[in-house]
């Protein structure tokens, strides 16, 4: 959510943000509703003031005036009740609209949709195979590394790994958690569900409600990232300045309905309903300098993880219309997938300034004693099974087995993923 005071003072900034981010919102209607709310608040205050004045006059009023004053008091009370009801209804509508206001993006963001995304750099070289390479599905089938019956049990977009590949997935998660702990992030294992308020706090609601599964007969929803829970941990608190920045590495199974993705990536591990994710999350003081520093830190962590996994990747500056309403800046990391001869996104590094903090009520007391909204940032550390597709295809050997990167050998106790017997 944005600062309402700034919205009133600089509407042209938010008109541009709405246009550049492609948000369907009538800002003039919102501002008109805000004025109605302010007028109702003013009228309610006037009614309350007059009621108090009338109430004070009644005991001392002569008999011929008392009846009229009592009648006036009742009329004021009835009008105040009507105004309060109208105010509650309009405030609720205003809040719904305010939750849809996008954060103006940083000046360096390309303007446009996905087609405007700009490559920043490439690291590593795509493999040149001396043999006909297989895609990750063929590799799993050849080695007996996945269970084809799982769709009969759990439906489409499900996966179940077997043998060395099952152990490899677990090794990757532990590797990522160990890496983040060494980088000074507090490792946390978290629930895969949260209340609606937490989703509103991150901005997943209302914009992306169709991607989230509700748990029947509860007030809980399945999370698609540990960010949802991490962002709500300090809601309502006032943190001391010296406690910042807070750095968390949260692991949780993640769930996504994949609504609207029918026909896309239906084969293999690229787009599944349940996956596993280690998420980087930072809550810092409200300054662009602190935010930029944390952004680079999150980006460097992800890059180093990909280097240790020995994967060719690139960085992409995400355009305004592709970054989501709450993002100040977003840089995606994409890994080369040989079977598609293109790079596919594995990490998304985002700075959101105070947009989430205002929604989730994340505050701290600055050195001057003022209470301020914090800034938040997040980035993937590692998510499976998508990264497995890249690891299998880039590190495959002529006989169909798969080489294990040096950094993962201690976790696997071997150098090559072997077929299931």
UniProtKB/TrEMBL annotation:
Pfam family, any one: Seryl_tRNA_N
Compartments, as annotated in UniProt: Cytoplasm
Main localization category: cytoplasm
EC top class named in words: ligase
Matching Gene3D superfamilies: Bira Bifunctional Protein, Domain 2, Serine-tRNA synthetase, tRNA binding domain
Superkingdom of origin organism: Bacteria
CDD domains in the record: SerRS_core
UniProt feature coiled coil, ranges: 30-100
InterPro entries found in the cross-reference section: aa-tRNA-synt_IIb, aa-tRNA-synth_II, aa-tRNA-synth_II/BPL/LPL, Ser-tRNA-ligase_type_1, Ser-tRNA-synth_1_N, SerRS_1_N_sf, SerRS_core, tRNA-bd_arm
Aminoacyl-transfer RNA synthetases class-II family profile domain residues: 135-405
A Gene Ontology molecular function term of the record: serine-tRNA ligase activity
Keywords (A to Z) from UniProt: Aminoacyl-tRNA synthetase, ATP-binding, Coiled coil, Cytoplasm, Ligase, Nucleotide-binding, Protein biosynthesis
Pathway: Aminoacyl-tRNA biosynthesis; selenocysteinyl-tRNA(Sec) biosynthesis; L-seryl-tRNA(Sec) from L-serine and tRNA(Sec): step 1/1
Catalytic activity: tRNA(Sec) + L-serine + ATP = L-seryl-tRNA(Sec) + AMP + diphosphate + H(+); tRNA(Ser) + L-serine + ATP = L-seryl-tRNA(Ser) + AMP + diphosphate + H(+)
EC number: 6.1.1.11
Family listed: Belongs to the class-II aminoacyl-tRNA synthetase family. Type-1 seryl-tRNA synthetase subfamily.
Protein name: Serine--tRNA ligase
Source species of the chain: Thermus composti
């Amino acid at each position: 959510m944005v600062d309402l005071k700034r919205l009133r003072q600089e509407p042209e900034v938010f008109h541009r943000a709405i246009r550049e981010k492609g948000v369907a919102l009538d800002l003039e209607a919102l501002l008109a509703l805000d004025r109605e709310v302010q007028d109702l608040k003013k009228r309610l205050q006037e009614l309350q003031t007059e009621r108090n004045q009338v109430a004070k006059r009644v005991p001392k009023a002569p008999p011929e005036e008392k009846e009229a004053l009592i009648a006036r008091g009742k009329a004021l009370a009835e009008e105040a009740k009507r105004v309060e009801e109208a105010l509650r209804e309009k405030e609720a509508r205003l809040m719904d609209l305010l939750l849809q206001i996008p954060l103006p993006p940083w000046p360096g963001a390309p303007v446009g949709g996905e087609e405007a995304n700009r490559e920043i750099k490439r690291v590593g070289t795509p493999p040149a195979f001396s043999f006909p390479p297989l895609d990750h599905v063929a590799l799993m089938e050849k080695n007996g590394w996945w269970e084809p019956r799982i769709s009969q049990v759990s439906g489409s977009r499900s996966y179940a790994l077997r043998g060395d590949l099952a152990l490899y997935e677990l090794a990757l998660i532990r590797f990522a958690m160990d890496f983040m702990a060494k980088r000074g992030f507090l490792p946390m294992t978290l629930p895969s569900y949260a209340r609606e308020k937490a989703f509103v706090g991150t901005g997943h609601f209302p914009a992306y409600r169709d991607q989230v599964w509700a748990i029947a007969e509860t007030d809980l929803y399945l999370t698609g990232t540990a960010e949802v829970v991490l962002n709500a941990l300090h809601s309502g608190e006032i943190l001391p300045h010296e406690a910042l920045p807070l750095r968390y590495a949260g692991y949780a199974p993640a769930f996504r309905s994949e609504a609207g993705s029918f026909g896309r990536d239906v084969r293999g591990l690229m787009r599944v309903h349940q996956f596993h994710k280690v998420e980087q999350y930072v809550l810092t003081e409200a300054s662009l300098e602190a935010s930029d520093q944390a952004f680079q830190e999150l980006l460097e962590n992800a890059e180093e993880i990909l280097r240790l996994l020995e994967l060719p990747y690139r960085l992409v500056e995400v355009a305004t219309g592709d970054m989501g309403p709450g993002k100040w800046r977003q840089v995606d990391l994409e890994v080369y997938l040989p079977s598609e001869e293109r790079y596919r996104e594995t990490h998304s590094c985002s700075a959101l300034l105070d947009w989430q903090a205002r929604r989730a009520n994340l505050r701290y007391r600055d050195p001057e004693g003022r209470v301020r909204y914090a800034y938040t940032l997040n980035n993937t550390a590692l998510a499976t099974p998508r990264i497995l597709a890249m690891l299998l295809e880039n590190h495959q050997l002529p006989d169909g087995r798969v080489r294990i990167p040096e950094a993962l050998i201690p976790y696997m106790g071997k150098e090559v993923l072997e077929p299931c017997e």
